[in-house]
Write a structure and sequence with these properties.
Beta-galactosidase, Chain A, domain 5; TIM Barrel; Immunoglobulin-like; 12 helices; 42 strands; about 15% helix
Length: about 750
């Protein structure tokens, strides 16, 4: 069977020439008995007991296959793996020339782009596999557009250092198809062309069109105070600390529109997950209503942490009540998903006395009723933000801890039952509640949540407590690849293409930059926040933050809600994350270049036409009149460059107020030899606008400007100081003249030294 694309990308026509679908029926794998083509682009594949009907659509770069499976027998059958693509060939593509990006089995695992013959390169990817040959400038994408009912996967096969075939499947996991009934299979796609970025972005557009997810498209701006929570005892309450963060955050970030406060685990008695209706009055003696009212009084949406699939073994009455709904192994024992739980108050117990965490079966009616009751209860209390954690517990085969028990046979184990559970949460929490998920499936959450933690716990700390890695500290520094460090976020910006299409990519949730965090480390974290489009939760003890580090946080506001594209995603050095992240604007670009290695690295930045270059953190004009620019980045640092089209007249080149250097908060226009500039910041803030002046021009109205001449090029850089009025606005104007011949401009002092 041949369904070919016109392109010959990566020997596509040969690789897919021997395309053999297969279906697992009642435990046995079958190939088609016959294939009929009743009309163009329509195929009927006959197997014992079933017919698999395909409708194929294609253009020059992509095909789509929509299909359904009909049980044409008189008996019910169970379906397993349905292999829509099983293609092998004797014509190969060299593995050393091909890099691949897969979907991690665990949602927040590092997403590395590796040559397919690298020892650590995955053989299989959930949902889709993206391939790219840099030497040939050829891209191939194989995967599924639908994935919220079946576990879907794509495998690639190697032989002697060559790619020799692909397999793609959807797994019904034993789901029963009744006699005479038909069921829909997940939509499948293959794309080939020259750009992996175009294919990834196109895939997300198609998925969004099919799912039509509804979510809050604006990231939240909030506070938590997590990293520097220093208390070690379990006696003193946290309310004073929390309400102090409310007040100082509102004061020090006035005008930056912080809108959410995230209370993480402190409210759960004993740290016992499942005890969601109770309140930890030892930590927070005022009670839930007091916390919620105090947050709202100060303009914050109150938020909670919750692990909806977890039930603590210490909650014996609840375990007994829900015992039928708890996941069990093949021997009928409760499955333990976290042994000796050490979070919340549980960390104060000896390790052997800490609780274990069992898991709810997402398909069981008792689980759905329980979790609906929980989210309905807190909605009525006024909670409108959740960090929904450890969702992998309910993911079944989609994650590394498959569930052996499955209560509802009407739902497919894994994706469908998980999505049904997440739908229940959304309906109970309400459409106006911001839901962030973490530690589990990412793509599968589309349509049920507002944001997905697509990277690790960047910027987070832990309370100082014995028997923890952090002890005797609360934060980890000087290790970029630590699980709370920034390196994983750089890797997982590979998911940039789903951002604000399926949900908000939460790649850099907590922003922590205060001392003793090294300055360059702080700049790396702030730059990731500023380039990620993620929500921003400030992790500082706002009462004590130093002024210069508070200024770094403010440079990430206002939030640019798009996520920067990792320009070197498929070409960066193996063993390290991408390091070049780019925004393109109409006549400019902002490019962040990171170096997480131990040696200096050099790169060439490109822009169509001649451009000027300004670097943000160094506050330095670096030259212009070029269409490429070489930069050298020192180890453990980041530099952010503004590349702006050279106009051969005075023009704003940067600001020092926001990471994108004026692209989203500053406007300017040129009229009658005058440059008019305006900007917006919170009332009372101060900053600088930098103006480039080409050789041969001068400023007629100097006012309060600071003016510096480049000794090499005779160009002039002007600093316009900005102080923002009570409306948060500032404006200024510079009028320019043209200089006369050089000899006429020499002063008397110049001439007497000739």
């Amino acid at each position: 069977m041949e369904i070919l694309l016109s392109d010959n990308t990566l020997c596509i026509e040969q690789l897919f020439k021997n395309w053999i679908p297969k279906i697992e029926i009642s435990g046995k794998l079958y190939t088609p008995i016959r294939i009929e083509q009743p009309e163009e682009n329509v195929f009927s594949l006959y197997f014992p007991s079933v017919v698999w009907k395909w409708k194929v659509e294609k253009n020059e770069e992509r095909i789509w296959i929509q299909s359904e499976i009909e049980n044409i027998s008189e008996q019910d059958i169970s379906l397993g793996k349905c292999i829509i693509l099983d293609a092998f060939s004797d014509v190969y593509a060299k593995a050393e020339d091909v890099r691949a990006l897969g979907v991690a089995q665990r949602g927040q695992d590092v997403r590395r782009v590796l040559n397919v013959n690298h020892p650590d390169a995955p053989e299989e990817s959930q949902i889709k596999f993206q391939f790219y040959s840099h030497s040939e400038n050829l891209a191939l994408q194989i995967g599924f557009i639908g994935f919220q009912r079946l576990l879907t996967g794509v495998r690639r096969n190697l032989k002697d250092g060559y790619i020799c075939g692909f397999q793609a499947y959807g797994d019904f996991s034993g789901w029963v198809l009744s006699a005479g009934k038909t069921t829909v299979f997940e939509e499948f796609t293959i794309a080939c062309g020259s750009s992996p970025f175009v294919q990834l972005e196109s895939w997300a557009d198609i998925v969004a069109d099919r799912i039509k997810p509804v979510f809050c498209r604006e990231p939240i701006r909030g506070a938590a105070g997590i990293p520097w929570s220093y208390r070690e005892d379990n006696v003193q309450n946290d309310e004073e600390e929390i309400f102090s963060i409310f007040d100082t955050a509102a004061e020090k970030m006035k005008g930056y529109n912080l809108n959410t406060y995230w209370l993480s685990i402190r409210n759960i008695p004993g740290g016992n997950c499942g005890d969601w209706f109770s309140w930890n009055t030892k930590n927070l003696p005022g009670g839930a209503d007091h916390y919620i009212s105090e947050a709202r009084k100060r303009g914050f949406v109150p938020g909670l942490w919750i692990a909806p699939f977890f039930i603590s073994s210490h909650l014996e009455d609840l375990v007994q009540e829900l015992k039928d709904a708890l996941l069990k192994d093949e021997n009928g024992n409760f499955m333990v998903f976290s042994q000796n739980w050490s979070h919340g108050d549980a960390r104060y117990l000896p390790p052997e006395k800490r609780p274990d965490m069992y898991g709810l079966d997402p398909s069981h009616p008792k689980s759905l009723a329980f979790i609906k009751k929980v989210f309905t209860y807190w909605r009525e209390k006024g909670i409108r933000y959740y960090m929904v954690d450890f969702i992998r517990v309910g993911a079944g085969k989609m994650d590394v801890a498959p569930a052996f028990s499955h209560a509802n046979p009407a739902l497919v184990q894994g994706a469908e039952s998980f999505c049904n559970f997440m739908r229940t949460i959304r309906e109970a929490a309400g459409e106006d509640t911001f839901i962030l998920t973490s530690s589990g499936p990412t793509f599968h959450c589309a349509g049920f949540v507002d944001a997905v933690r697509t990277a690790g716990d960047m910027g987070e700390g832990r309370k100082i407590a014995p028997n923890s890695f952090f002890y005797p500290a609360s934060y980890v520094i000087n290790k970029l690849d630590f699980w709370t460090g920034p390196e994983r976020s750089l890797y997982n910006m590979a998911s940039y293409y789903t951002h604000k299409k399926l949900y908000i990519n939460d790649v850099a949730n907590v922003l922590t930059v205060d001392k003793p965090i090294p300055l360059e480390y702080a700049r790396i974290c702030a730059t990731i926040h500023g380039m990620s489009g993620s929500s921003s939760i400030i992790g500082e003890m706002m009462q004590a933050i130093s002024d210069d580090r508070l200024a770094i946080i403010k440079k990430t506001f206002p939030r640019h809600t798009l996520q920067a594209r990792p320009e070197d995603l498929f070409t960066h050095k193996e063993g390290y994350p991408p390091r070049i992240f780019r925004y393109d604007f109409e006549d400019s670009a902002v490019i962040a270049v990171f170096n997480v290695t131990k040696e200096a690295e050099c790169h060439t930045l490109k822009f169509p036409g001649e451009f000027l270059v300004w670097e943000f953190w160094g506050e330095q004009y670096l030259g212009g009149g070029c269409d490429t620019f070489d930069v050298c980045i020192q180890p453990g640092t980041v530099r952010v460059f503004h590349l702006i089209k050279q106009m051969n007249r005075p023009q704003v080149i940067a600001t020092d107020m926001q990471l994108l250097m004026g692209e989203i908060d500053t406007e300017s226009h040129w009229e009658h030899n005058t440059l008019y500039v305006s900007a917006k910041r919170p009332a009372g803030e101060r900053g600088s606008v930098f103006v480039y002046v080409p050789e041969g021009m001068y400023i007629e109205n100097i006012q309060d400007c600071m003016i510096a001449k480049d000794g090499e090029t005779n160009e002039v850089i002007v600093r316009m100081p900005c102080t923002f009025d009570e409306k948060g606005t500032w404006s200024g104007a510079l009028t320019f003249g043209y200089m006369k011949e050089e000899n006429d401009l020499k002063s008397a002092d110049d001439k007497k030294f000739e």
